[in-house]
């Protein structure tokens, strides 16, 4: 039987390009354009492999991966991203990824990566493999995201605040009360010693929680 693959990226053209690359070799069970849609679809469809980006709206790929590994521990996660920084690759594997490659290499590497993770192997794009291996030998590797000071829920609130969502919108998206959103936002500001939404947004971009776009 052909492996079932779910794709997640916030750019429609990227999703269509990936579909053309993979459709002859795998069953593509769904396309998600944000992190929350990805978690919902993955829970419902239970694919064998999920190919996801790091920078996605509503819920970034790293936090989505952490949720997915708890919900679907046997599903393989492959990050396909523009982030070539070794710290992002390290964080992706900490979040539960089995593969990491760059978008510019998708045409030549993605099928190979999927076959590798289905055999319980890890796949790392050759473009940054040496850097990752070298960094793993160091006692500590700086991590761009998430901040260890924040809980998963607080990171979710932070991302949505940085994306310009209103308190009411955030409450609806997360299915919590407006008061709870306000509580989380004030706690985040206090914990990070930030005092305005603009400062929160700048922090979220610097940490890779949201894209500069």
Key descriptive features of the protein:
single chain, 213 residues, alpha/beta, Rossmann fold, Arc Repressor Mutant, subunit A, 2 domains, 6-stranded parallel beta sheet, 13% strand, Response regulator transcription factor, NreC/VraR/RcsB-like_REC, WalR-like, transcription, Tscrpt_reg_LuxR_C
Descriptive overview:
The protein has 213 residues and is of the alpha/beta class. The chain folds into 2 domains: 4-136, Response regulator (Rossmann fold, 3-Layer(aba) Sandwich); 152-206, Orthogonal Bundle (Arc Repressor Mutant, subunit A), CATH 1.10.10. It has 10 helices and 6 strands, in the order βαβαβαβαβαβααααα. It has a 6-stranded parallel β-sheet, with helices on both faces. The longest helix has 15 residues, at 178-192.
Task: Map the helices and strands.
Layout: E1 4-8, H1 12-22, E2 27-32, H2 35-45, E3 49-52, H3 61-71, E4 76-81, H4 86-94, E5 99-102, H5 106-118, E6 123-124, H6 129-136, H7 152-162, H8 167-174, H9 178-192, H10 197-206
Parallel strand pairs: 1-2, 1-3, 3-4, 4-5, 5-6
Helix pairs in contact: 2-3, 4-6, 7-9, 7-10, 8-9
């Amino acid at each position: 039987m052909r492996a079932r693959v779910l794709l997640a990226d916030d750019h429609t053209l990227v999703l269509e390009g990936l579909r053309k690359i993979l459709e002859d070799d795998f069953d593509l069970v769904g396309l998600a354009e944000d992190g929350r849609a990805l978690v919902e679809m993955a829970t419902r469809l239970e694919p064998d492999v999920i190919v996801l980006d790091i920078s996605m709206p509503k819920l970034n790929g790293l936090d989505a991966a952490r949720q997915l590994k708890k919900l679907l521990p046997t599903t393989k996660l492959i990050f396909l991203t523009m982030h070539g920084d070794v710290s992002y690759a390290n964080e992706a594997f900490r979040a539960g990824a089995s593969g990491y490659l760059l978008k510019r290499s998708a045409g030549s590497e993605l099928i190979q990566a999927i076959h590798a993770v289905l055999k319980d192997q890890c796949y790392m794009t050759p473009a940054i493999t040496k850097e990752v291996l070298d960094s793993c030998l160091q006692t500590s590797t700086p991590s761009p995201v998430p901040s260890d000071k924040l809980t998963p829920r607080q990171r979710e609130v932070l991302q949505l605040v940085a994306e310009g969502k209103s308190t009411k919108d955030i409450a609806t998206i997360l299915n919590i009360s407006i008061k709870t959103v306000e509580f989380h936002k004030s706690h985040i500001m206090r914990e990070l010693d930030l005092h305005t939404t603009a400062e929160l947004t700048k922090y979220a971009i610097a940490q890779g929680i949201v894209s500069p776009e």
